[in-house]
Prior knowledge:
Elements: H1 2-49, E1 50-54, E2 69-73, E3 84-89, E4 92-100, E5 105-108, E6 114-116, E7 119-120, E8 138-139, E9 144-148, H2 158-161, E10 164-165, E11 169-177
Antiparallel strand pairs: 1-2, 2-11, 3-4, 3-11, 4-9, 5-6, 5-8, 6-7, 9-10
Membrane topology: Single-pass type II membrane protein
Subcellular location: Cell membrane; Membrane
GO molecular function, one term: signal peptidase activity
Amino acid sequence: MPRVTEQGGLAEGVIKARWAKARDREGWLSLIGKVIVLLVALWLLFSFVFCLHRVRGNDMYPAMQDGDLVLTWRLQGSYNQNDVVVYRSRGKELVGRVLAKEGDVVDLTDDGQVTVNGTPESNEIYQTKAEKAVKFPYLVPKGKIFVLGDFRTQATDSRKLGAIPTSDVEGVTIGLLRRRKF
């Protein structure tokens, strides 16, 4: 009789050990499943709602400099004056400030004064000069925006590219991370 008790106790210990392993395995599978769901959610958020871009060049100097990272909101339906947007043009990703929307008239005088619908621009840091690609006064076409960089003497913007189709806008910047000397 004592042997039966020992064997029963041994079998019970083996069963408990196997249940413990199964619970551990179940815990790991649950953790892996949660991590996968989190990664898919982050991928969806950063594919369709937010986007992270690296600023290349100094078109928006001093607000943004080469190497900075900007977080953009992709779900913006319309763009307002002074929104800083990331857009694609000629295969490049550029950053600029919205100066005018469709239907607005942009004028650039010989002395560098920028006006939108007859009102002088108030955010001008650097003097603006006209480029030959756009004739002023310029009426912004439907479905487009007129974008200028803050560093007007060196920026590639709507003065060289013309108005930017809103479909080429990647998003409106909502955050900035300074990334110097990396």
